[in-house]
Design a protein that fits this description.
Layout lengths: L18 H19 L3 H10 L20 H6 L15 E4 L9 E4 L1 H17 L7 E4 L7 H13 L2 E3 L6 H10 L4 E4 L1 H13 L11 E5 L5 H11 L2 E8 L4 E7 L6 E3 L4 E6 L13 E7 L10 E7 L1 E2 L11 E2 L4 E2 L4 E3 L2 E3 L1 H9 L4 E10 L6 E8 L1 H4 L3 H19 L4 E5 L14 E3 L6
Parallel strand pairs: 3-4, 3-5, 5-6, 6-7, 18-21, 19-20
Antiparallel strand pairs: 1-2, 7-8, 8-9, 9-14, 10-11, 11-12, 12-15, 13-14, 16-17, 18-19
Helix pairs in contact: 4-5, 6-7, 7-8, 9-11
The structure holds 5'-O-[hydroxy(phenylacetyl)phosphoryl]adenosine.
Length: 440
């Protein structure tokens, strides 16, 4: 495959800033944003309780004097208690993708929308987007930040957009063929789904012009990337963000695809131990915490994301000076506690991906029939394995049970299910069904 782009292509010079210059800018912006939120009731009270003012922030380490903000704080001030500007300055609202209860809303001024497009343009260009590309957006356009966020970033770069929105795989593929889409934007699980439909429909791969995909909004592994790249014959880039911080555009991969560059001139990142709340050293896994430095409508300070990852401050060969974050390996709140043992769904996925014959489609069902937790993993077989003899299926099931046990330490029940029986997702995948209710 051709080299994706000149390796040193950057969107703006801030991406190449010297560290001391960048850190000065962060410090300056941190004091400014503290000032801007000081009339937001939550921060007004929190600063007063901690006795902290912008003048107390003399070095970047002093950020630790500022209180954390959590999802619970946002819920307590529902719907718009964190707004830092009058409502007549708001141009757009979005909402978090929470699956239960009320969403949490976020808001943008005109400058915020400009900034957002700019940050999306940056990571897209870092990942190879060129003005001559045609990009198909298969993210939902709505309260979810994926569709609109990427849309304006791509527009800023000057590439052509097909705003296909999510779902209807047949139509997606038709658009890809007829308009010769170069770049696909969606979740990794939807990219997997499209690859599957291409195979099922025995679509001629050469009728597609697809070269790259920018995937994000949910966790995925390196093995899944390899699978998507092989099946679609493309390069797939990871990008990360969350609505509370801005949406997509918080970080993304450059052509070296060795961690996602965090846009540190606009966000300060910390990585903390979620129990002690102390910083963890570079390279160690912890919870990511972000402070938005330049947003106007909805700037959150030290927002606890519940996303687990590690940070890498080493220079990147691409020349960008920003810290890179690893893939998200789990969330503090999707960690399952099974009979007292912490298990992340990603560990189960890791076990399955080691085993030939299991498609990357699975579902984890947790129950507590009596007083003991049970976990059932429904694993979809690939069509080739399914057509094999029953005795082989028993061996396959035993193999999966052993592999999961060796990674998680827990013996789980494994059900092999027929190809095409588990639910497919057009947006974020939901792989865990926890039936333990409030006790979990
Ligand atoms: O998912 C924003 C986004 C849209 C990012 C499109 C990338 C592309 P929310 O709906 O608020 O925002 O969900 C945020 O999704 O806290 C992570 O748990 C997860 N997430 C987002 N990107 C990634 C990623 C958007 N690349 C939540 N890898 C975050 C793993 C991701 N998890």
């Amino acid at each position: 495959m051709d080299e994706p782009v000149a390796k040193n292509r950057v969107w703006d010079k801030n991406e190449l800033m010297d560290r001391p210059e960048l850190e000065n800018l962060q410090l300056y912006r941190l004091r400014q944003v503290m000032d801007r939120v000081s009339h937001v009731p939550f921060y007004h009270q929190a600063f007063a309780e901690k006795g902290v003012t912008p003048d107390d922030i003399r070095t970047l380490e002093d950020i630790q004097k500022i209180p954390f903000t959590t999802k619970a704080d946002l819920r307590d001030h529902y719907p718009l208690g964190f707004l830092a500007v009058p409502r007549n300055k708001i141009l757009r609202y979005h909402g978090s993708s929470g699956t239960t209860g009320r969403p949490t809303f976020v808001a943008y001024t005109r400058n915020d929308l400009d900034l957002w497009a700019h940050l999306c343009a940056r990571f897209l260009v870092a990942g190879g987007l060129l003005p001559e590309h045609t990009v198909q957006i298969a993210f939902g356009y709505g309260l979810f930040t994926g569709g609109f966020g990427l849309h304006y970033g791509i527009e800023k770069v000057g590439a052509a957009i097909i705003p296909a929105a999510s779902g209807n795989s047949g139509r997606q593929l038709l658009l890809m063929q007829d308009l010769q889409t170069d770049v696909l934007v969606c979740t990794p699980s939807y990219a997997l789904r499209l690859a599957e439909v291409i195979q099922q429909e025995q679509l001629d791969r050469t009728s597609l012009a697809l070269k790259y995909a920018h995937l994000g909004a949910e966790p995925w592994s390196e093995d899944i990337r390899t699978h998507i790249e092989k099946e679609l014959d493309i390069l797939a880039f990871n990008n990360y963000g969350l609505s509370e911080v801005i949406g997509p555009g918080v970080s993304g991969e450059c052509v070296y695809r060795n961690g996602m560059h965090i846009q540190e001139d606009h966000f300060i990142v910390e990585c903390i131990d979620p129990d002690t709340l102390e910083p963890v050293p570079p390279g160690e896994q912890g919870e990511l915490v972000f402070t938005a430095l330049t947003k106007e409508a909805f700037p959150l300070l030290r927002y606890r994301t519940r996303d687990i990852a590690s940070l890498n401050p080493e220079p990147c060969p691409c020349g960008r000076t920003s810290v890179r974050m690893s893939r998200i390996t789990g969330r503090t709140d999707d960690m399952l506690i099974i009979r007292g043992v912490n298990v992340f769904p990603s560990q189960i996925e890791q076990a399955l991906l080691k085993i030939e014959g299991t498609a990357p489609h699975y579902q984890i069902v947790v129950d507590r029939p009596g007083s003991l937790d049970t976990v059932t993993v429904n694993v979809e077989m690939s069509p080739a394995v399914f057509s094999d003899r029953m005795s082989d299926l028993q061996a396959l099931r035993d193999h999966i049970v052993r592999e999961i046990q060796s990674i998680t330490g827990i013996q789980m029940q494994v059900n092999l299910v027929q190809p095409q029986t588990l639910e497919r997702f057009t947006g974020k995948a939901k792989r865990v069904i926890d039936n333990r209710g409030a006790l979990s």
